[in-house]
DNA sequence: TCGTGTTTCTGGAGCGCTCCATTTTTGATT
DNA sequence: AATCAAAAATGGAGCGCTCCAGAAACACGA
């Protein structure tokens, strides 16, 4: 008993391996391996027999063994910084879209988790023997010290990196889009709220340049912490209090824009009637009906797809010169910006 | 040249393995293995020698080999459903907090990714040879078909599961907290917006029961799709239009509450003056200054910690009876609810 | 000095695959 | 039917570890 038909793994029952499948299908283990990897040059009859045996035994390949034997994991590691900032969602789907058809998996690591076991998330991925790494957080020296496979930095382009290609949206252009949209609506007194972190730095820089080009005086307020909602709120309050003539705020990202919207509400400024507001990222937040936020779309899916391509190129030719690829951002106009009322 | 001091891995240079470390430290590979695993009973002198060699050679253990040889990966897999619904963030940190000290990693899989390579995310984790699985999405039959290690379902408790413990917040109690808070503020006409999915179903059920207990008539409106912002918006619009006398809305989660807030604004209802609003999850969204949303905190960190404990218990004793553990939710009162004005 | 237990250290076997060189089978062409 | 190239299938070696049984080193009292 307990052994009939489809095998339900009971305690102690050894998991079937490639040899079990081979003998069940009446072929060699090597042939099973070929079928598993979808290799060409296997006769349809044998392939079907192997597949049937796999199904019947409820066989699952052991990826640890495959990785060890092949010295490659067919996995791409992605280093994230914070799950709460949703820009990575598009990035992941762009990466996945490119890698999946090639048989590569995408594995995610974030710095806060597993910190006890590895010095950096890169360490963790290295010991998984990933075939490539996408760094979607602010890159640091020690990450690159541990690096041993092709890498590409996605999203951050202000920090010079020793040995990685860079793919990002063009934050400078994005900021210009935002400023010019507001200027086109007649705004002259435009504030910017920002925070720590690479992309934010570039966005502030782009804002400042665009303002000067338009002959306008920049007003930048940096939140205490990073680029969270509360930082956007605090910075916006200060901005509004110090410059009552402000008619528009450009926030370094949508989350900070949410904070800015809170500050506007608390200061009795209606959006967009009394204050235009514009964000960055085109996150799910921006399309919420309460905000209907005009925002800069960094096209993170394209950034992800570009990162995937850069990684694949580098895996083919590790000695090719390092490249930086910039994705052109787009302005998404919703209801949080309006012509300035005199 | 290119061989001085700290070894920077060049193309073609074989990665150091446990034997390289052993001979560099003048010990056996077995001793290196012991040091790597932090085993007791290694003399301080040898331990130091090994650690020095590891550092000098820039050695990284090969987890594939360790997993294969030990027939365990010291990794717990987590199946997520959607990165955009942030309730999982607390869950992950609760899980991690418990597992990290025990030397277990936490690996995340989500259904949409790697779908081409595996039939279910559980398949993917199984071939990684995870030592346990936390299912943080709506469990399905086929997930359990592939299962071969201890599993616990976290967050969803309405679906009966064949072979897994369940840890969740008590949605029925949470809904009651919400309704009673509103009733205490004098509300009688309280609507509920909900959507598809297990937790939502229970929350609606709890709402209905609590309403009836208080002698009130329930008003439930389900969005077209799932439990996203737009579903909350649409359902709330209908609710408000059909029941103009409504003074409060309880949303199945914070994201839907954001949608409800949009609907309220579009119908000229101020929050909380004209309409009280209450959410569920206590996500980062709820604390945003624009919303200051009263919400039910499902205490996801505790759910995560509980799931970890359940999993560890089951790893020790696979034959123990299945358990369901419920975490008591808490009401977080912010500024979106107020006494009803007559 | 010699046991005798305890702690520390070691070599061998084997985990389940991939890769490769080789063998077997197939099928086209004389 | 004989020959030969191409296609399909195979067996062996080895990836880098863990685990285990046993060897070596050490501690301590008789």
| SSE order of chain A | HHHHEHEHEHEEHEHEHEHEEHEE
The 3D shape of chain A can be described as elongated
Sequence stretches where pLDDT stays below 50 over 5 or more residues of chain A: 1-11
Distance between the termini of chain A: 86 Å
Task: Return the structural class of chain A.
Answer: alpha/beta
Number of strands of chain A: 12
Total number of helical segments of chain A? 12
Would you tell me the overall average pLDDT of chain A?
90
What does this structure look like?
- 2 copies of one chain form a homodimer.
- Chain A is α/β, with parallel strands linked by helices and 342 residues long.
- Among the domains of chain A are: 1-59, lambda repressor-like DNA-binding domains (434 Repressor (Amino-terminal Domain)); 171-297, Response regulator (Rossmann fold, 3-Layer(aba) Sandwich), CATH 3.40.50.
- Helices cover 40% and strands 16% of the residues of chain A.
- Chain A contains 12 helices and 12 strands.
- Chain A has helices at residues 18-25, 29-36, 44-57, 63-70, 87-99, 121-127, 141-146, 171-184, 198-213, 229-242, 254-266, 300-316; strands spanning 75-80, 105-109, 132-136, 151-154, 165-169, 190-194, 219-222, 248-251, 276-280, 294-297, 324-327, 330-332.
- In chain A, strands 2-1-3-4-5-11 form a 6-stranded parallel β-sheet, with helices on both faces. Chain A has a 6-stranded mixed β-sheet with strand order 7-6-8-9-10-12, with helices on both faces.
- In chain A, helix 5 (87-99) links the parallel strand 1 (75-80) and strand 2.
- The first copy, chain A, is elongated and about 85 Å long.
- The model of chain A is unreliable at 1-11 (pLDDT under 50).
- At the A-B interface, helix 4, helix 5, strand 2, helix 6 and helix 10 of A face helix 4, helix 5, strand 2, helix 6 and helix 10 of B.
- Chain A binds a DNA duplex (30 and 30 nucleotides) through helix 2 and helix 4.
